[in-house]
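Need C-alpha cells for this chain, all 75 residues.
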Amino acid sequence: MTRWQKNAAWTLTLYALVVLMLRFTAGDGWGTSLLIALVVTPLALWMGWLRRRTNEQAREWGRRRVRPWPEERRR
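Here are the C-alpha cells for all 75 residues:
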C-alpha cells in the first residue's frame, strides 16, 4: 500500500470507530453520530500530528542545545 492509501485507511477506520462509539455509547442517532464524527475525526488526526511534531522538535532541540543546562553550569 502506498502512503496515501495507508492514511486513507486509518482515517476511515478512525471515522467508523468514532461513529460506532457515538452511536452506541452516547445513544445518539445515526445521523447525529455521522455528523459529529465528521468534526471529531479531523480534530483527532490533527492532535496526533501535533503530538508527533512536538516530540520530534523536542528531540531535535535536546540534541542541538548549545548552552549547558543550569545545573551543569554550576559544576
